From TrEMBL:
Pfam families listed in its UniProt record: UQ_con
Superkingdom in the source lineage: Eukaryota
InterPro entries registered for this protein in UniProt: Ub_conjugating_enzyme, UBC, UBQ-conjugating_enzyme/RWD
KW Protein transport (keyword) present: no
Region (Disordered): 129-153
Alphabetized UniProt keyword annotations: Ubl conjugation pathway
Keyword tRNA processing: no
PANTHER family recorded: UBIQUITIN-CONJUGATING ENZYME E2
Protein name (Swiss-Prot/TrEMBL): UBC core domain-containing protein
UBC core domain ranges (all copies): 4-153
SMART domains associated with the record: UBCc
Organism: Paxillus rubicundulus Ve08.2h10
């Protein structure tokens, strides 16, 4: 991994260890600078109140210039949140992970943004094209060119 990426991730990890994660967010595993896991709990009164989800971050050598690949973990025991911007395979259609990515964003900031996205949702439903997308989706959500046209959910 490139040294700039490793330096940035080391800095973010040190801050998490020193200051802790934001409320409702827990670091589950960060054994290397390639893949990190977090849990996020949706706080406050919302459709997802008290629900806990697992996020996986994958970093490439160009982080933080390029965004991490972020998705909800889905396996036999865990499902992705049922949300208009979250596909059943865990991929997330969120502009901050694509066209609106900025190197000033941190892993913690992404977690808080996704936590807020869930908390503010008005409907528990999958994206309209969920079935088609999941059938044809690449393993890495960064290889998808999402169209960001709905910021109302």
């Amino acid at each position: 991994m490139a040294s700039i990426s490793a330096r940035r991730l080391r800095k973010e990890l040190n801050e998490i260890h020193a200051e802790g994660c934001p409320c409702g967010i827990k670091l589950l595993n960060a054994d290397n600078f390639e893949t990190w896991f977090f849990s996020i709990e949706v706080l406050g009164e919302s459709l997802y109140q008290g629900e806990v989800f697992k996020l996986m971050f994958r970093f490439d050598a160009n982080y933080p210039i390029s965004s991490p690949a972020v998705q909800f973990v889905v396996d036999q025991n865990i499902q992705a949140p049922i949300h208009p911007h979250v596909y059943s395979n865990g991929h997330i259609c969120a502009s901050i992970l694509g066209t609106e990515w900025s190197p000033v964003l941190s892993v913690s900031a992404i977690c808080v943004t996704l936590q807020s996205m869930l908390a503010s949702s008005k409907a528990k439903e999958r994206p309209v094209d969920n079935d088609r997308y999941v059938r044809t989706a690449p393993d890495n959500p960064k290889k998808t060119r999402f169209q960001y046209d709905d910021d109302t959910v």
